[in-house]
Amino acid sequence: PSGGTGCGKAPTLYNGTHTIQSNGKSRQFILRLPANYNNNNAYRLIFAFHWRGGTMQEISSGGTSGSAWSYYGQQEQSNNSAILVAPQGLGNGWGNAGGEDVTFVDDMIRRIESDLCVNPRQRFALGFSWGGGMSYALACARATVFRAVAVIAGAQISGCSGGTQPIAYFGLHGISDNVLSIGQGRGLRDTFVRNNGCNAQNPPEPGAGSRTHITTAYSGCRAGYPVQWAAFDNGHMPGPVDGTYAESGITTWTKGEIWRFFAQFS
Hints:
By secondary structure, the protein is α/β, with parallel strands linked by helices. The protein has six helices and nine strands. A hairpin with a 2-residue loop joins strand 1 (16-22) and strand 2.
């Protein structure tokens, strides 16, 4: 099908905060529709998960970087070609106890796609830190539901139910991350290097002091299931900027590389 069951319907969902019941709990998310939303156009659906202690409002607003960094920059990069979702974690985290956060995602998809026009082959997830861990949990548990994930400075902290099926995977990590080590990020990546049938390798990573990043696309992966790895000379952050140790959601390279990784699946 070109789109889900919400296609052709007059939408009742709107930009802003929505509340649904999931697993017996009241859960919230912020929704952002493309400007000039067309209910006959099947859009990408992108979930952006906040970090530990973060909020859906910070994801939606872009924080101090503003709209250039909304949804980790995917609002800007997608240029009205995606429906964006910022879910709120319980206790501002993604503990995913008993799989309840994965169930929450299932319930959000059901609610959104019954009302809005989504391409069911174009669902994506990304996040930083614990939000990266949640995106990894979805790659493990919902590899057939999501087309690709991007995990920024993540680790296995939201679980990995399943974790044996292929899914397009992009990992990004700082070489001097002292919160979740780059070794943890490599471990997540290597799960999908195996699942996707890629050739095992140790991708080059930038040296300390280089203030740059190196992105590697793995070779030999199954058609449609690429794995990409970006290591950068910085610490625990989602918006590194080459040439400096500052970070900025306005000038970071991560948002463009993540968008290009997602956008290759048309």
